[in-house]
Amino acid sequence: MATMEQVQRGFARFVDTEVSCAFEGWQRALVSGCAGLVASNLPKIVKTYAYHPMVAMLGVYDPETGLIDIDTVYNAFVPKLGEEKIPITIPKLGTIRLGRQEFDCLKRYIMEA
């Protein structure tokens, strides 16, 4: 289980150290800056969707404690990736590909935060 603060710090660190390096100049600054804004708004984003029936049935977020079950999310998703990397397109900037190695890194950054 991870606190919201751990997820925020881990996500921001992941983008700053692993994702933004795929870009240069203003694009790198934009990706890092936007990631910081997303991280700071994460509590609001989670609260918006936490009580949605589809999200609630996943059982990965406890609104009472604010804890997120990172291990359950990771184990439900990452092993099914195999060796493939998922393309994620950032409009007007480009496409990055994230696979098992990147998700391992993201999880580690969250748990270390």
Describe this structure in words.
The mean pLDDT is 92. The chain has helices spanning 4-19, 25-50, 53-56, 70-77, 100-112; strands spanning 61-62, 67-68, 86-90, 94-98. The protein is built from 5 helices and 4 strands. The protein has 113 residues and is of the alpha+beta class. The strands form 2 sheets. It has a two-stranded antiparallel sheet. Strands 3-4 form a two-stranded antiparallel ribbon. It has one domain. Helix 1 (4-19) runs antiparallel to helix 2 and helix 1 packs across helix 5.
Total number of domains: 1
- Termini separation comes to 12 Å
- Classify the secondary structure makeup into a structural class: alpha+beta
Q: Helix proportion of residues, in percent?
A: 55-70%
User: Order of SSEs, N→C?
Assistant: HHHEEHEEH
The fraction of residues in strands falls at 5-15%
Strand order of the largest sheet: 1-2
Q: Describe the largest sheet.
A: 2 strands, antiparallel
Short summary:
Helices cover 59% and strands 12% of the residues. The chain contains 5 helices and 4 strands; from the N terminus they run αααββαββα. The chain has helices at 4-19, 25-50, 53-56, 70-77, 100-112; strands at 61-62, 67-68, 86-90, 94-98.
